[in-house]
Amino acid sequence: MKYISTRGKAPELTFEEAMLTGLARDGGLYVPETVPQLAPEEIAALAGISYEEAAFRIMRPFIGDAFTDTEFRDIIAKAYAGFGHAARAPLVQLGPNHFLLELFHGPTLAFKDFAMQLIGQLFQVALRRRGERVTIVGATSGDTGSAAIEAFRGLEGVDVFILFPHGRVSEVQRRQMTTPIEGNVHALAVDGDFDDCQARVKDMFNDFAFRDDVRLAGVNSINWARVLAQVVYYFTSAVSLGAPHRPVSFTVPTGNFGDIFAGYIARRMGLPIERLVIATNQNDILHRALTTGRYVTDGVKPSISPSMDIQVSSNFERALFDAYDRDGSAVSQIMDELRAAGGFDISQGALQLLQDTFASGRASEEETTATITQSFAASGEVLCPHTAVGVHVAETHLSATPMITLATAHPAKFPDAVEAAMGARPALPPRMADLFDRSERVTRVANDLSALQHIVRERIAN
Ligand SMILES: *Cc1c(COP(=O)(O)O)cnc(C)c1O
Fold first, then answer.
1. Which residue of 267, 338, 366, 422 lies most exposed, with the fewest beta carbons within 10 A?
2. What is the DSSP string of 348-406?
3. pLDDT tens for each residue of 348-391
4. Residue 452, in any domain of the structure
5. Cα–Cα distance for residue pair 325/33, rounded to 1 Å
6. H helix runs in 182-307, sequence order
7. Is 249 in the pocket of ligand 1 (CB under 6 A)?
8. 194-239: pLDDT as tens digits
């Protein structure tokens, strides 16, 4: 299995190389050259087996010979051992034909643990075999950073630096990043918003001398291995509702387009998904792009669902690459336009292809809060604000086809928004109850490339 860049100019890589690299050197994102297919019988055979065994069968065709079957089974087993639910991704019913896929039973209470726990184990095995060290640098709007730190804390061969927007993550998110005591963990509070953090990380990757010198590796949602890990729960949930014999639809609270792109890959692999519904908060660039054909950035408006406060949705480039018939130079051109002019028009043909697969909707702040209140009254389910955005949008797309909305975080990760809607604060699971008593370790940094590079060099030298 070979991986190619969405901009057509970077070298082809193996799964392991693409995973260790993150962003391609031409600025693009790696995608598999072809998408492996699962036959209907293979999909049907996933019914009732463990999450780990399903994960092995679904991901195996993508990894080539990077890991032996025994190694890969062991990696998967370790990745999900720390989850607080035996099903890993249990499904509950919200109402007629509407289901909630709970993706918050991992160690940091958000769906990002599914990918990050796996990637931590994959890195560990690959680096040990190569006898190498890497420096992981990532930007976070809150959940990626905590998941990355949790996955890599104390692992050999890795230093992890996480940039988060100062004052714009929830206290639980911040404490999950600043309280680990391991010396290989570095939490950096940047004076800027999430897009600034993401832009500085991209700048570090585009500074090739720095990139090679510190052996930079990326685990942001652009990393292909993360997308792959997320493909699994689309299969397990659809199969438990009758796939491949019965189609399903999904609604996905979306920011960087990583999670929903995994659903798109599941569909391309042969899972009968009727619609993939993009749910955005008031930062609705994707909803506007899909309805108007114009992708224009508009400045981030902080919301009560901060992990989706994003204007440049990185993984959307992967969907555009397919919509533009895998023409890397066409993708390069529109990405240059985005950088220079803050927007671009999606061609008529590409827009049509995107609209055949994706639908979209947005939830205002008021609608998000009202959905938390109503959902608790109707079903007893306490939703985090991101999940509430999804449920609100899903309700306008219900049909005869079962709808699965992804519950992307545990409500206790966003207690202020939940309290405002329900009058009560959701409790943290007992295994994290002492989070507020642990001491914090964080470095405040200006939104400045050379200041950040200086910190990275200094810390890895020690
Ligand atoms: C990261 C995140 C999202 C958005 O996921 P993308 O893959 O960036 O689209 C939604 N909800 C929560 C809770 C998240 O942490």
1. 366
2. HHHHHHHHHHEEEEE--HHHHHHHHHHHHHHH-PPPPHHHHHHHHHHHTT--SS-EEEE
3. 999 999 999 999 999 999 999 999 999 999 999 999 999 999 99
4. no
5. 13
6. 194-206, 208-213, 224-240, 258-268, 285-292
7. no
8. 889 989 998 998 899 999 999 999 888 889 999 999 999 999 999 9
Asked, for residue 355, whether it belongs to a domain, the answer is yes
Residue 237 confidence (pLDDT): 98
Testing ligand 1's pocket by substitution, the residue of 307, 362, 387 carrying the most ligand atoms inside 8 A of its CB is 307
Is the CB of residue 317 below 6 angstroms from any atom belonging to ligand 1?
A: no
Q: pLDDT digit string (tens) for 323-340?
A: 999 999 999 999 999 999
Lookup: tokens for 264: 């798109």
What is the rounded CA–CA span in Å between residue 447 and residue 239?
45
Does residue 180 lie within any of the structural domains? no
Q: What is the mean pLDDT of the chain?
A: 95
| pLDDT attached to residue 299 | 86
- 50 Cβ neighbours under 8 A, 6+ residues apart: none
CATH code of the domain containing 244:
3.40.50.1100
HSE-CB for 430 with a 13 A CA cutoff: 1
291 within a domain of the structure (yes/no): yes
Q: How far is the CA of 82 from the centre of ligand 1 (A)?
A: 20
Helix (H), strand (E) counts: the chain: 19, 15
Mean pLDDT score, 122-144? 91
Instruction: Please give the structure tokens belonging to residue 240.
Output: 């438990």
> Contact at 8 Å (CB) between 302 and 278?
no
Full residue range of the structural domain in which residue 340 is found: 91-107+224-422
**Is any atom of ligand 1 closer than 6 Å to the C-beta of 230?**
no
